Amino acid sequence: MVDFATILAGFGDAFTIWNLSFVLFGVVVGQFVGAVPGIGPVMAMAIAIPFTFGLDPLPAIAFLVGVNKGGLVGGAVPAVLMNTPGTPDAAATALDGYPLAKAGKPLKATKMALFSSVTGDTFSDIVLITVSAPLAILALRMGPVEVFALMILAFAILAGLIGNSLTKGIIAAAFGLLCAMVGSDPEFNAPRLLFGYWELYDGLPLASVAIGMLAISEIIRRLSQIRGEMKPAIIVKDTGNPDDRRVTFAEYWACRFTMLRGAVIGTILGALPGIGSTAAAFMSYATAKSASKEPETFGKGNLHGIAAAESANSAVVGANLIPLLTLGIPGSVGAALIISAFMIHGIQPGPLLFQDQGRLIYGLFGAMLMANFINLWVGQMGLQLWVKVVSAPESIIFASALLLCIVGVSMATGGLFGVSVMLIFAAIGYLMTSFGYSVVIFIIAFFLGSRFEISLSQSLALMNGDWTQIVNYPIALALIALAVVSVIWFLSRPQATYEATSVED
Q: Which of 33, 289, 457, 464 has the highest CB neighbour number within 10 Å of its CB?
């Protein structure tokens, strides 16, 4: 268990002007990219990772957390004003936010989204701080066989929950594991799959793969859809009534149970790898509608609908770090990118983090709490500014992002070889998305590949190559049984997808 002095030292490290400035910058960047449809916090995090190499681990990771948190708040702005969610997480927000904006109350809708988002986010952060250390102690009792079985279960759940095809999800995960094998063998240090390029001896560059698959492929897709057209400026109606430009405390307090329910749903789903904030938002929205005494008002500008969606999707952010910090398994792409930032700074995520890097982890917790208050303050100050941001031409936004990607990867990898790898994976990501293969599963499998391989080799050594001896490991046997049951259930259910990207008007 982490001693109290380490906890205080970690929080003391977080609450400094230096770290505060990076959290503030991250939140501002996150809200900006969230407000621009199509970019989103994940793409911004992927672009920003190479620029954090020269920083200490705490400000670097706190900056990325700030981008992620700010992006969820910013994503609600175009969802409310344009019925075009800036992030998939905000798709449920548009159901009631856009009708409220059309009624001349855009600031009321965006402020309700802001307050609900910060409330849900703070709730999940408190749960993360409370339960992560005890869970890490339990995780330390798991040996290589149990870890291998747990990763099998995680891949089964990810493949079934992300996208609309379990088969394609498994193929994407297998391809991610294959790409993770490029470089030296972690057991014997023998070179593999280099094809004469000795720059790959240390494996495919994390920054190149992440930015290529997540950012460049999306930029290419969005640029191909512009076809010379510019988005029109947004006309915000004003009824002249001051109450239509603010959320009163009575209105906020009336939604308290809705926000609490959404925060609980988002926290529970966020702690399960692969479900994601989009599913949490829609589940919370549906629950709030069914619990309402006036369900017919949902979809017509009900503040409870906005509160339900935003509290749930923001609660996922903190909860996603629970499996990451306790087991080393990312629950989302954002968490996977944070894993890459940990690894870039020489830190191995997993249960030993609290033992080896307890001060850093509690410094991160302090930065997360600080980011919530900054999110509230920046959101209050910047909502009207972000309204202007969403009217910027996409051609300018994405061309600038493309330039930043190239510069960032060349700096991170020390030359143009990393840029070439990035462009190759951008093409692969574009093709995978076009044919319905999940890029999310690929990225998570790629990040977990080396640990998966090490766990597999250690398990084989412990069982002398005889898999029937797994009966001597009841926890591992139960986890594999759960994986098999999950696969059977996903194959038998009606096909559905949580990758919502837009909402019909």
A: 33
